[in-house]
Amino acid sequence: MGKRVVVTGYGLVSPLGIGVEETWDHLCKGSSGVGPITLFDASAFRTKIAAEVRGFNPEDFMDKKSVRRVDRFIHFAIAAARMALDHSGLEIGKNNPERIGTYIGTGLGGLQSLEYFHTVLQEKGPQKISPFFIPMLIGNMAPGQISIMFGTKGPNLSVSTACAAGSHAIGESYKLIQAGLADVMICGGSEAVITPLALGGFCAMRAISERNDEPEKASRPFEKNRDGFVMAEGSGVVILESLEHARNRGARIGAELIGYGLGSDAYHMTAPAPQGEGAARCMRLALESAALAPEMVDYTRFLALTRRPCRSVRRSP
Q: Residue 13: beta bridge partners?
């Protein structure tokens, strides 16, 4: 079975707010994070809406010099990691950095920097490209910069599996702790690709919603009149620890991660297998990993919690 793994901290940068508390409050109010694109002029595109992170100041989480040297997706990742570490109460000192790792997933990495410096190349020539361009671009610099900032020296990894990248980063971190290769993992996902090139690409695929007149109603994945997904940005990070490590330091434990499954439909570039075989297989593998029978999964407690006022749900263990 390996070591038991628990969640002791979390941080969030989302289109609904900066931090878990603010995001949760807006969720409880039924707020929507989807609206007209403001990061660039989207008037020429079929889709003119997205879920942007608003009111975010990276200097609240890192110094001004560092802000200029990393991409927006790294800004988000560092902010979420800092909030998660603060929430966990974890102290990274001289005796434990080799046992603390970082694993952050991202689909496209620093696409904003790629587009910007391509323009610089075309308009001003190669001499004007920043020496920080490549570190801004590559996905593994999100965990890399977190490691540098907080002094973690354990496993340092990134995964790029599109929409599943954050989930895979958490699942693989769980396996590292379970196997005894780390005591703590700072893990999650980050994305910031609301850019002209990305929007144009998804528009060309006809993959995103064109409900420009009703942006708050655009994301409706299970509705019969759905017309595509909504581009969004942000970061979510959790602190995973072995149960033993968490107990030894008196950490507040929010949840236990007991199973993880992954696979592939082997069907289509964007569409899932129509009968849901791939998703069902991942659920089955997760249950097997957790040594649970399907009938042991009980939804009633979750339903009971969600029927309570929002503040009660937020404080529930």
A: 18, 235
